[in-house]
């Protein structure tokens, strides 16, 4: 059973023609782009998007990305992509679910892990910086650190 997150957002995507392969289904590499769209909305919604990350002095490279394909998506298909914040104290872990927007059929499950890296020193941080912890505390005050 997958761990449930404390906060989630969903985005709607309509599969464009240039994302499908000669078999008329979404090429597997394009699903990562859909995850990125949902991740950006999630991070922006907690006021810690990529510009805020940079301004706080940290980059957050993805160090692990896992996808499980269940059913293919096709040209013109309406998708809903959910991004769910699962871990944030030592790393940023997000779970994703891509579904057919009309039927709710699960198409793809995924997860990404990002770690904080100091831009100035280029060193990986062993715990998440206060700026992320404060962003999470704003959406769920019970998560505030002392």
Automatic annotation (TrEMBL):
Signal peptide: none annotated. InterPro entries: 4-hydroxybenzoyl-CoA_TE (IPR050563), HotDog_dom_sf (IPR029069). Keywords: Hydrolase. One of its GO terms (molecular function) is fatty acyl-CoA hydrolase activity. The keyword Hydrolase applies. Coiled coil: none annotated. It holds the Pfam family 4HBT_2. PANTHER family: 4-HYDROXYBENZOYL-COA THIOESTERASE FAMILY MEMBER, NOVEL THIOESTERASE SUPERFAMILY DOMAIN AND SAPOSIN A-TYPE DOMAIN CONTAINING PROTEIN (0610012H03RIK). Belongs to the 4-hydroxybenzoyl-CoA thioesterase family. This is Thioesterase. It comes from Pollutimonas nitritireducens.
